[in-house]
Design brief:
This protein is an alpha+beta fold and 143 residues long. 22% of the residues lie in helices and 22% in strands. It has a four-stranded antiparallel beta sheet with strand order 1-2-3-4, with helices on both faces. A two-stranded antiparallel ribbon has the order 5-6.
Length: 143
């Protein structure tokens, strides 16, 4: 009898498909309906790691299981990830294996984009035609 029970247990364990959960990954669920992270809450979570932090923006990351937190600490801006359980902070690049793209770098460039039309050229040294269609702006620090 024990031998039969052992064989039946092995049969059930090895032949039935495993049941797993991927947090609605690929099922079209909007994870931000169940999970929230406010700017104040994010600041409280990471203030010991990044003192004097200012949270600029929070969005769901491409993995849909992490928050993308765009922050400024001192004069430096950065992008970190906080998991939905709010227990872990991930600092570093998120790379899409399939597309071979650095998603963190792309998001950081998008968030740091500067509108050059807003730059005052009143004290600028203009070389060439000031009405040219294409302009190049060079910043220099003599110190």
């Amino acid at each position: 009898m024990p031998k039969f029970f052992s064989l039946a247990l092995l049969f059930v364990l090895f032949l039935l498909p495993p049941i797993s959960s991927h947090g609605f990954e690929g099922r079209g669920q909007d994870c931000s309906k169940c999970h929230t992270l406010s700017k104040d809450e994010a600041k409280d979570l990471i203030k010991d790691i990044f003192p004097n932090v200012k949270i600029l923006d929070i969005k769901v990351s491409p993995t849909r299981s992490l928050w993308e937190v765009f922050l400024e600490a001192g004069s430096r801006k950065g992008l970190v990830y906080i998991d939905f359980s709010k227990k872990y902070l991930i600092s570093g690049s998120m790379i899409s294996i399939k597309e071979r793209k650095n998603l963190t770098q792309e998001k950081f460039a998008e968030l740091n984009k500067i509108d050059v039309s807003m730059i005052s050229l009143d004290d600028a040294l203009v070389m060439g035609d000031s009405q040219a269609r294409i302009r190049i702006i060079v910043f220099d620090d003599p110190d």
